[in-house]
# Entry
Amino acid sequence: MAAPALPGYSPGFKKPPALLRLKRKRLRSAETPLAAPGPAAPRRRPAAPRNPFCCGEPARPQLLESVCEDKLTTKAEPFERTDILPLIDDFHLPLAVPEVPSSPRHEFPADWSIKTRLLFMSSQPFTWAEHLKAQEEAQGFTQHCRATETNLPQSVQEPKLSTELRCAFQQSLVYWLHPSLPWLQLFPRIGADRKLAGKASPWSQDEALQQVLMSDWSVSFTSLYNLLKAKLCPYFYVCTYQFTVLFRAAGLAGSDVLTAVISPTTRGLREAMRNEGIEFSLPLLEESRTRKQKNSEMNLEMEAADGLEVGNTTEDGQEPAPSDDDDDDESFSWLEEMGVQDKVKKPDAISIKLRKEKHEVQMDHKPESLALVKGTNTFTLLNFLINCKSLVAVAGAQAGLPPTLLSPVAFRGGTMQTLKARSINAKARVHLAYEDIFSLEIIGPVMPHSLHALTMLLRSAQRGAFSAVLYTHEPTAVFNTDLHCASSAFNQETICKDLPACGLHTKTLDQLSQCPTLGKSSIRFLEMKDYAYTWKS
# Structure
């Protein structure tokens, strides 16, 4: 198509793509068949060069060439997003941090973050996960409530005909929620004001109704804590509009005591916890200080070894950053040596305190602000959260709405929910051929036990070969930090002997009992080949 006639431009000027199309058209018209009549050999299309005049980002590759068949399971509900291309594109795009183990392993590390979406991909169809019969669905719920452990063979020959597999699939999708308000999406809560805006919230201006909701919530929260303490619940989440708390039973994540981790925190929240007598630590902040101290000591040793004078300047001539643990009185000792200490005004106690807390304030709302509460202090934390006025928003779309409780097992006031699942069948162009792509999408909140249970099912149903893209609720990724909670006399067999009654599969429980190894990140991509895992975080 010719460009519009503009001053200074030739009316016959053509854009590069149009010029290429015209060139190809002339070549085709000039071709004459020389071979005998018969089916023509396939001719490779020349790759179109990138338009040098294009100023925007290059277009996303068109991976799908045909209309996809979208099948929903019997329990699935309509989704807001139904386009298939972003699903497949997201799967094929490379991930940012390719941290892949050097060798495949038979188990992937526990991931304590909450996933909002999983996308499983396989060369084998997921028809076994479609259209569960009413009896299979009911059996799956029953197996969940009775904590029935299903052990499938290494490979299921006919997955679609396996009632045991389909019931176990339904069982793996169950979770428990409080409060239950069907017209509101109660997870995630952090940053959810836009999604909740305009939704009916009759309690927002009714204090009496807010008190009823909070009273009911307190009963459910206490019920969950009691189950956790008795090791009848392995873990649960408290999701507020500002932060998330993960409570874990003794024996999980390599800890010999009951723990609670809070992230992100603010100086105000930490100060309120101190005022209530809650003992807690900031593991990532302490780790950072220890690392800086070790680096400083190492630098001093290197300078001494090289015969360099150890002074008050670094190698680049700049003053070193003052340590948070320095004694402020000693920092002014040089004034006394000069005899001018009376002529220089020293900072008062408030200024000194503010300077010491500067680093702590700067980490507010960041992963480094993670707070760890252990042992009996978790009960004090329970009472603190029940009575904390700032736990519930006073304005905005979440005003008066109690925090969301998420649990893998039933508790008082909890409502049984199921993750949404749908299978997607499509054809994608790979080189010059078309290949079937089968995928299974799971919509969250996907907790750690559900992720592991689903991978165990897919291991058998997909013959030990599948891939998965995992979408993380980012504020919870820091829960994968190793908190070093185990004492020197930690005996895992003694601590974990009562945990099998918590309702999780034995293999899932073994995975969640290990010390976290992912740090502040989480698993973004998981792949199984020949029954062995590799992953990226």
Remarks:
- The chain has a mean pLDDT of 79.
- The first helix runs from residue 16 to 30.
- DSSP finds 15 helices and 14 strands in the chain.
- Residues 174-300+371-417 form one domain.
